[in-house]
Amino acid sequence: MRLALHNPFEETWFAESELARRIGLAAARLDWVAVECRNPQEIRAMQPDCVLALHNNAPKATEFPTYGCMWNPPIFFEGVEAAIANILSYDGYLVSSSAIACWLHRLLSNTPKPFLQAPFYTSSPRSEFRAPNLEEPQLFYCGSNWDGQRFQDLFQRLDARPYMAVYGNPKGWGYLKTSYRGALPFDGTSVLETLHQRGVGLCLHRPEHRDAAIPTMRIFEIVASGAIALCSDHPFIYKAFGDSVLYIDAEATAEVQVQQIDAHMDWIRNHPEAAIALAQQAHNHFTEHYALEILLKNIATLHQTALTKKHFVSSGHLQIEVELPVQMVLLGGHHSAEAIGRSLQSLSQQTYPNLSVLLVQTEQESEQPEWHDADVSLTHLTIPADAPISTALWEGLATTHGDYVGVLDAGTVLHPNHISTLCQSLQRDPNCGVAYSGMLQAQADTTVLQGFQPFNLNQLLQFKPPLASGSFLMRRKGLMDRLNRDPYLNATAILCLLLHLAQTQCFRFSYEVTGELPAQSDNSANSQPEDVEAEYIALRLIFWHQEFASGKTLQSAQSLSGEPTQLSRTLSDAQARIAAMESSKFWKLRTQWIQLKRRLGISTTD
Fold first, then answer.
1. What is the pLDDT of residues 364-402, one digit of tens each?
2. What is the pTM of this model?
3. Could you give the CA distance from residue 400 to residue 393 in angstroms, rounded to a whole number?
4. In the Cβ-directed half-sphere of 246, how many Cα atoms lie within 13 Å?
5. Are 194 and 167 within 8 A, CB to CB?
6. Considering only CA atoms, which of 234, 231, 232, 245 is closest in space to residue 283?
7. Beta pairing partners, 604
8. pLDDT tens digits, residue range 65-90?
9. Quick one: average pLDDT of 518-524?
10. How far is Cα of residue 303 from the mean position of the Cα atoms in its chain?
């Protein structure tokens, strides 16, 4: 297999960098390839079978199946909307504890998204056991202190101990005077080799990790190196390694913990053979159950399931009862041949077999012969050169004949499972008239999610569409009864279509990411603000006081949305007037007069 390890952090001090190196070493032993990637361009250059998202501060970033590495406590991202959206965008999950699995189950339980998971830990590659030299054992600890001065009281007390050896980002250890030994390269081997040389490794956990029973890299690298593990008590470590490691009380004071560590170090020094026996027992259990080579095979199993469940393959595995005809209207007018070619290429790679494309262009634009080389049925419709975008859209939709239809701006790229995913949503819910997915969009040096949320009618009525252009598929039956007149719009043509659909159709969100918008994605990108505002006025006329739900019209929704702004403006004006009054000479004299009356015992209410 080819694995892209998506590490969104530029800084090399983060644990994800070291973990990526270790996964790469273990993958090579399986004759796999695993490459650390920072952005979508590097991922695509590698052409992986799948992507491992090493941290949830970035969403699924490409068309390749992407599995989120869930090894942080849920409390770290609960309530963080961007993180939850990123997590929802993944195609499957690598899970490090039952608490995370339960959290994910709840997150997905009221969505159509299947919960695909496999066990995985921030472990280390398999190694041969080597007994450490315990004549003068030292206590190794490595960390970057990314979340502040973690365990500072404990390390300050340990700083004077001759056995203490601390490594990591120098910015995190400035308060240590004697025990800091410097930084180690994150190359997948140096940390483990230094651990072996020191003989004993310290493994500490934040309360959040203990509460969720999530292990960190520390326990795995210590036992993999052959060193003796000295750990704060932790449910996973108790269950996985039992009495083969030494423990300190995680709830004790730093003073008591230092006493416990001193006692353990004395015991190791005085009983080296017994200590080595513990290390070998822990190492054996690691090799049998937790080495990365074993865990990586879980990814292969997950991946095979995702390929079929998520429609990444087309060889008869589609979970759709009847493959009804789908026709995509590709709006190519005033777009480059290269942009049209990109969209056609993505349509030709769809896993849904019963698909055709209607390309709409102006009379002055010509077809390119290579477009017909795309592995998809292609027909052509021309419109006048000066026709607005809505004419291309309305006439294109009127020409279609499929049971399901979609609309695509040239330059938008659909992932191979886009149409299969949305067809399944429409077939599962007969009451659903429009199914849509989230889209990706490149912005500056990052990739963001667009239209990745459940349908929100209020947003649509306020001209803030909750779904992205090109992201939806709709039932054609009855559609043209609504679209009997071209509204002559440009910037808001797609918005007008969505408003028509919202009057009669239910929208269903797939909770998947299945496409990518060009950098300038919406039709208003090249329009002047005054032109867009003029079309907003036109939309208010087209849907003048028409209901979209009981009591909901464009006018009522936009009136309500403007009330908080007006109230805020009124409050700001009042606060400014009060501030001006309080700074005036009259107000100051009035304040002094009231203070004088109070000192003289005269009533201030007269």
1. 887 776 776 678 889 999 999 999 999 999 999 999 998
2. 0.88
3. 11
4. 24
5. yes
6. 245
7. none
8. 999 999 999 999 988 999 999 999 99
9. 58
10. 18
| % of the chain with per-residue pLDDT over 90 | 77
Query: Do 394 and 388 contact (CB within 8 A), yes or no?
Result: no
Q: What percent of the chain has pLDDT over 70?
A: 92
**Helix, strand, coil shares of the chain as percentages rounded to 5?**
45, 20, 40
Give me the pLDDT at residue 521, please. Answer: 43
Q: Which residues of 501-511 are buried (b: 16+ CB within 10 A; e: fewer)?
A: bbeebebbbbb
Give the C-alpha separation, 565 to 568, whole Å.
5
- Consecutive H or E run containing 493: helix 493-504
Please tell me the distance from the alpha carbon of residue 81 to that of residue 69, in angstroms, as a whole number: 18
CA dihedral of 310, 313, 315, 321, whole degrees rounded to 10:
30
Return the amino acid letter for 531: D
Whether 298 contacts 120, CB under 8 Å: yes
- Burial class, 343, CB count within 10 angstroms (exposed 0-12 / middle 13-18 / buried 19+): buried
User: Token digits for 563?
Assistant: 């009330």
Q: Are strands 2-6 and 33-37 parallel, antiparallel or unpaired?
A: parallel
Cβ 53 vs Cβ 68: under 8 Å = yes
* SS3 category, 466: coil
Name the residue among 92, 62, 113, 39 with its Cα closest to residue 516.
62
Tokens 């912005």 correspond to what residue? 443
Higher per-residue confidence, 562 vs 524: 562
User: CB of 167 within 8 A of CB of 142?
Assistant: yes
DSSP-assigned letter for residue 227? P
Query: To the nearest whole number, what is the mean pLDDT of the chain?
Result: 91
Q: Which helix (H) or strand (E) holds 85?
A: helix 81-89
Which one is predicted more confidently, 524 or 573?
Answer: 573
Q: Which of 549, 552, 534, 553 is nearest to 492 (CA)?
A: 534
DSSP structural state of residue 237: H
SS3 398: helix
Partnered with residue 435 across adjacent β-strands are 473, 508
Closest CA to 408 of 350, 323, 459, 483: 350
Query: What is the pLDDT averaged over residues 466-492?
Result: 92
Residue with tokens 């190791």: 268
For 268, the 3-state DSSP assignment is: helix
- How do 66-70 and 92-95 pair as beta strands? parallel
